[in-house]
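2024-03-11 09:14:02 INFO receiving multi-entity request
2024-03-11 09:14:02 INFO entity count = two
2024-03-11 09:14:03 INFO echoing inputs for audit
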Amino acid sequence: MLKKIRRVLAVVFFLLITLLFLDFTGTIQSLFGWMAKIQFLPSVLALNFVVIALLIALTIIFGRIYCSIICPLGVLQDLFAWFGKKQKKNRYSYSKAKNWLRYGVLGLFIIAIVAGIVSFVALLAPYSSYGRIAQNLFAPVYYSFNNILAYFAERVESYAFYSKEIWIKSIPTFVIAITTFILLLILAWRNGRTYCNTICPVGTILGCFARFSIFKPIIDKDKCVNCSLCVKNCKSSCIDIKEHKIDYSRCVACGDCITVCNKAALTYSSSCKKNQKTKVAEGSSAVDDGRRKMMAIAGALTTASILKAQDKIVDGGLELIVEKQEPEREKKIVPPGAKSLKNMVSHCTGCQLCVSVCPNNVLKPSNEIMTLMQPRSSYEKGYCRPECTKCSEVCPAGAIVKITKEEKSSIQIGHAVWDSSLCLPMINGTHCGNCARHCPAGAIEMINIDPTDDSSPKFPVVNEERCIGCGACEYVCPSRPNSAIYVEGHEVHRVI
Amino acid sequence: MNKDIKNNIENKSVKNSNNHEFTRRSFVKKVGAFSALATLATVGGIGFGGCKRKSSEEDIYNTTTEIPKDKMTYRTNPKSGEKVSILGYGCMRIPTIENTSARESSSEIDQEQWNRLIKFAFEHGVNYYDTSPAYCRGKSEEATGIALNNLGVDRESYYVATKLSNFAPSTWSRKASIEMYHNSFKKLQVEYIDYYLLHGVGMGDGLKDFNSRYIDNGVLNFLLEERKAGRIRNLGFSYHGDIKVFDWLLENHDKYQWDFVQIQMNYVDWKHAKEVNTRNTDAEYLYGELSKRGIPAVIMEPLLGGRLSNVHDHIVNKLKQRAPQRSVASWAFRWVGSFPGVLTVLSGMTYMEHLQDNLRSYCPLEPVSKDDMEFLEETAQALLRYPTIPCNDCKYCMPCPYGLDIPTILLHFNKCINEGNMPESKQDPIYRKARRAFLVGYGRAVSKERQADHCIGCGHCVPHCPQNIDIPAQMQRIDKYAEALKRELEL
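2024-03-11 09:21:47 INFO inference complete, emitting structure
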């Protein structure tokens, strides 16, 4: 019974959390966005004490059911293990806890948080690992299926589906996702929850509380016939049948042992032990921002291929479009709601949820070593549109806090910089003004190149005080591959 | 006892089958009477003679019956006596291997399919083929030449029309223009050209451009010489835009002896050309001027760039109510074919279905009645109430140097108007549905980087538009509309 309930709940959580990463219409996020917000590590980084307290209370009462139900990476491993079990039954055996390893990793992890080595934190965070897998591996499959439906919908004049572009947003992140996936597949297939009980910092922390949990599987020595069936089915390898003891710091309360025992020697019941006082671990930390590596300004600007109005000889056909290139920004841009680069660095666990939900193809994971996998904004495929606040709605870690559309319109995340050497009116006298036309903040004005001639071409003048850094100008600028106007990020976002 | 039962059953079944037969027969009878009545009722004004014609015509419109091969209507060229089919093949929308017309994509022309279409058309009596060095990104002449040669018939059995498409200033020199002329012979693999046109006179800067293209460089005189030499059998011009050029050319008819003139004519442009496009002139005037002088008219844009086949749902219903079997397009073809001064009606048929539908309209042509004329005039007025942009999808504006897909953007906008997906305000009850249809459809029709927001207003396209659409202004208008929908602002 316990196993059945656990399974149903796990499947529900797993599917819905996966859909958070797959759905690009915003429906799932608005209904089940809370599922991301009850994840342990993001809550710690968001200083969400209510959730932390609830999760610890949950663990103290029921054991590590968080790992069996709420954590999508845990459920993913159960899935792998389930396939493994089909191949060979009764495959596990008892092993001693590798305390030096798990406490060692936890120690390093805490040091990394305090020291602000976020890429290491993000690498180990279980929910974020799953997010990366879902975003990088599952989403393309989901999108492809959607695009097939969209293809047929188009044929029957239905607007129910629209196609979604599939592209690799960051190669390092993609590689990390694939590596994590394969590693976990092998580990879980062979030995069940090895990762959760040796590497995962959340598993180790919750394990400390689970030792003292009220409800737990207990072996009735009188009924037990030492058949070891439970041991062979324990994916946490935590049942010591000789001593009739279970290592509750590793047990994830899956209930497999209870179901498998023929003699009903195992029960999930309350222990008579007194609850011991536990200290709530303070996971939050201050991070100093000193080491953020500034990007060097590139020496020479890439020569832009300037599109000339050519003589028209024949009809039809489409001009080739040169893909836009990301400019070498001195400071990177993070979306409105992130408050500052520092806030982003100290809270983000790189789960990719914001990257998944960004409908404008603006957010992509960073490739820099210090901020690896954390989101950054870039405007080659779209700009941060004024009506969208999706990323701020979904972030579970407090890296991007909730903002409204109205607030967004006055948050300055950067400012536009003009490069006269690429600007069309300056180069060949074409009338343009596309940046000014699309600026939602009205921060760009077009000024005559020749002040005495009203009909002379105009060049853009940016009012930096008004500019919010949304990137509309950069996106619509006709200069390719480098835009003649681009956004420089700000360290600290301000309200203007 | 068993036998009894069996007999009984047999009796019953006989009875039943009798019943069946009775009802079936009576049903057929009733239907027959009904349809006869219906035919009478619909023919009404035409008179009794029309009754007979009606039934044969209905057969033709039945898409399951074969299209007759020997029923094509022909018109006679008054000068040469050539018998030209009323349906002319416009070779500007040649199919490509990706199943779209050649001007919409960069993919290769589907020569095999093109051969098939031309063969089918020829077998059903079409003998006029109109191309240009500019069409299909410059590939039309060659592909059409191959397809016509492939027919393996006598060169005298079909007529080839092509044009001097020297739009670009770089081709205004005598040398470049004459080179373009000679190149057409090579591409089409012909010794002579049946119908040769000055292409799109009146476009761009009116008389000024016309003089630069044909007079100052002596090219028109050269072409007159070529006609004398027999390498051009008929010389004419196709006209768009500035009426001064049209008038000037006809004033000088005595000097140039135009053999034919190509004009835009359809039941909307007849009286409402200015409403479609301020720069255009009513076809009633153009046609009148030509017939006054006995010059045969070759008709382009009989469907107003597809806008007379792709009409608002209300109008489809009205047309279908009048003749359920007929296609929407057939009305436009029959209307324009009913004018005796029309030599041939050009249609750019990409798909076999278009070709077949047009053949059904013209094999043979059944002229529209006076009643129908009035009805189509009403339809024209109704059409104009839907404020579509007068884009004919000719793609002369393309390629846009900034990568926009101009005609597709305009057609998407028109499609939304025709389908009633243009909410006027946020309070409009259809707002939600229409917003989705507009935005999703926009994304499907035009990829993001080719949408209207990338128009910088350089104006490169403007002089090329035969319909004189202020393309940059329209792009910005559509962009603004899409932006308002995206942000859910007041429209």
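2024-03-11 09:21:48 INFO post-check: Strands of chain B lie at 74-76, 83-85, 87-90, 128-130, 159-164, 193-201, 232-239, 260-264, 297-300, 342-347.
2024-03-11 09:21:48 INFO post-check: Residues 406-487 of chain B form one domain.
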